[in-house]
Amino acid sequence: FQDSANQRVNGTAKVKLFKGKAGVVALESPYSLFNANLATFNKDASFNQNASAGFIEIYNLAQKTYRRLSS
Known about the structure:
The protein is of the alpha+beta class and 71 residues long. The protein is built from 3 helices and 2 strands; from the N terminus they run αββαα.
């Protein structure tokens, strides 16, 4: 299982080391699922900006529920 699960684990990672802490600051892989064209907010991008309002509402439901229950 391990061999098949890691077939596409390949690439480079840039790590920042500072005072005993390590943080990943960049990743690169030929198998990356990140698409820069989807992560932009330009008007010509493939992301439908009209979806933002609905996403924000759904994303905040847990916070709204917590605030209501904490009052």
